[in-house]
Amino acid sequence: MLDLIVRNANLPDGRRGHDIAVQDGRVKELARAIGARARKEIDAAGCLVTPSFVDSHFHMDSALSYGRPRVNRSGTLLEGIQLWGELKPQLTVESIQARARKLCQWAIARGTLAIRSHVDVGDPQMLAVQALLAIRTEFKPFLDLQLVAFPQDGYFRLPANRDNMVRALDMGVDVVGGIPHFERSMAAGAESVAALCELAARRGLMVDLHCDESDDPLSRHIETLAFQAQRLGLQGRVTGSHLTSMHSMDNYYVSKLIPLMAEAGVHAVANPLINITLQGRHDTYPKRRGMTRVKELMQAGVNVAFGHDCVMDPWYPLGSHDMLEVAHMGLHVAQMTGTDEMQRLFDAVTLNGARALGLEGYGLEPGCFADLVVLQAGDPVEALRLKPARLFVIRRGEVIAETAAVESRLNLGGQCLSVDFRHEGGSAA
Ligand code: FE2
Asked: Full-prediction pTM beyond 0.85?
């Protein structure tokens, strides 16, 4: 007797009508009409079943703090950083945990079972680090929370951050972070990239820097990051997050830069909701979008993943932690509405995120962890179009969240109709 069978599932790669057999928390078999029985059976009825969503870039310590101690009046990145600085002295471990716990619950209900969250290490008491390490443990059975030690006020610019970084890593934070474009000079930024990559290499850790989150086309720390990844043998373990300056860079320079990134195996993470909101703020018209060059990076073979970045915090007043909302915004901003392109952006919130985070056992092949989401949609493109209900969220073979199917009923002059927003069992595929 198997633990679980999900029957008649459509898979993200286009296979239709498959059964997924699960035993001991892992996918055991994937085939049409599996004859065996299971303790629990779910009829997906032609719905899409995907490996769970991955959020490759988030800030859980600030999530759901919107309005505290005041709202961001200008809506800018810099006022957001200032506001976060005002809020920090008021934080307690308990208040950070309460917000983080709620956010994790939202993420799980939306089918996101892996999150890489940056955690600000600028506070000498390390309250946010303590709080999120405890949340990582508390949610481990349900969600993979990977933490990045993030010196929000600069690694060199706030001198205490050099010690704080080491303390955070000693406490068990997983990944080395940084913010080179926020250092006092371009040279100091480049120096911080080298120092942080060396630290990661010494400790055998991954690197994920807030890199060039700027509209300045001369903010080129990504070049240094690719160089250091190559020099230190960190290929595949380094991520450049945001990379918004690439939007504004000279095309000739980018034609040199992107192959260097591909060669160095650097992952790129864009945050479409936040990039489109915060970048281009100094422009009148035309107004730049600011998101990095997702399409060109993907075409060059760079692994591109998406992050939510913020939910109701000093930088962004909206959001419910839905990675389909992120991908939906991303495909609009990148103008990637071709059928294959939309499919690749679904990967940006699933497979590509898992690669950037280095998740083991992720996917839908036999042997992978049974971390699955059944969506009220027929295929990835329809999922992007509808951002539908996550009917079942499955972790290691157990259902940990359910949402009822959404149905709208009309009464048009006495004629009662049920409206189905799905289109002939799927969309363009
Ligand atoms: Fe960020």
From this structure: yes
